[in-house]
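User: Design a sequence. Structure:
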């Protein structure tokens, strides 16, 4: 019975991910039903095929990569910092990426250069935090450094928005709120993030289970805690940087998804980390589908829609955790 439940928990999240992928591909300003799918699969040059494979598929895959990577990174950082409110942006990666990407947009760069600037900004911010905090050995110092650096990035972002011309301001604001409209193709390196995170998560899952009970407990059971902390922060930083470069700032994905899965019984990181990849990707794919269809032909910024979903979810989680035992 227990083994059956474990297998069910492993299978239903990939099924949810696949269902979200199909819904997101079929949803938009032009809803594609079963006849359109048959035409697209049978005639690669048809209009439904161009909509599905040239326009929607790259964007939906980018949403899956960004959402899964952020949820995965959030789960790792909550273990590393031993803080249930930790999310992928808490160490300043989002601010560094935003400052670099907005500077690229202000200079008139295209989508590819803007994404690359965001990637380099996120990784650079993480390196600065590690250098100032002297590594990840002190989670409190790491957290404080990230918060302080985020404030500095926020000041730089406000300056860029203040001096930006009106023609560039709308695109900059959309990027800050999370935007997938500039995605042309996520590229093979970005798509490789999901299997990379899956394998890495399985590798660190057992020591992460021990670290979640405390550094002394993990050390007593033979875990090299200092090396594990370095590994966790690198494994959290890489998907965060890739996700921000693809989609801008998508709040609440990395914060809410691990908590929802823990409520569903995914306390073991051998289940939680792969589950975050599927659940986070499904959440962002569905949010992007809603952003494209609710006010079609106009689009909502995906990050703003994620915040609308995330705020009531977090309030519900907090109320549930504060409820006295029966």
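Assistant: Done.
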């Amino acid at each position: 019975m227990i083994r059956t439940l474990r297998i069910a928990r492993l299978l239903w999240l990939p099924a949810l991910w696949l269902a979200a992928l199909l819904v997101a591909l079929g949803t938009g300003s032009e809803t594609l039903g079963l006849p359109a799918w048959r035409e697209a699969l049978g005639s690669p040059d048809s209009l439904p095929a161009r909509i599905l494979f040239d326009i929607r598929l790259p964007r939906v895959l980018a949403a899956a990569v960004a959402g899964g990577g952020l949820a995965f990174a959030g789960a790792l950082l909550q273990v590393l910092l031993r803080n249930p409110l930790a999310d992928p942006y808490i160490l300043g990666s989002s601010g560094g990426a935003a400052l670099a990407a907005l500077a690229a947009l202000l200079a008139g760069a295209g989508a590819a250069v803007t994404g690359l600037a965001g990637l380099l900004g996120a990784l650079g911010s993480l390196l600065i935090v590690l250098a100032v905090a002297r590594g990840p050995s002190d989670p409190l110092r790491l957290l404080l450094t990230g918060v302080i650096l985020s404030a500095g990035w926020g000041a730089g972002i406000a300056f860029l928005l203040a001096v930006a011309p009106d023609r560039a301001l709308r695109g900059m604001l959309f990027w800050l709120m999370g935007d997938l409209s500039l995605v042309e193709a996520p590229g093979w390196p970005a798509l490789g993030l999901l299997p990379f995170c899956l394998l890495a998560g399985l590798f660190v899952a057992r020591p992460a289970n021990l670290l979640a009970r405390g550094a002394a407990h993990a050390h007593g059971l033979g875990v090299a805690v200092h090396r594990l902390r370095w590994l966790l922060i690198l494994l959290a930083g890489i998907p965060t940087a890739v996700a921000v470069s693809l989609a801008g700032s998508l709040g609440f994905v990395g914060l809410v998804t691990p908590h929802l899965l823990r409520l569903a019984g995914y306390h073991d990181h051998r289940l939680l980390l792969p589950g975050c990849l599927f659940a986070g990707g499904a959440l962002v794919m569905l949010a992007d589908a809603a952003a494209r269809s609710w006010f079609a032909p106009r689009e909502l910024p995906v990050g703003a829609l994620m915040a609308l979903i995330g705020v009531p979810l977090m309030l519900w989680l907090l109320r549930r955790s504060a409820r006295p035992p029966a």
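The chain is about 75% helix and 0% strand. The two ends are 27 Å apart (CA to CA).
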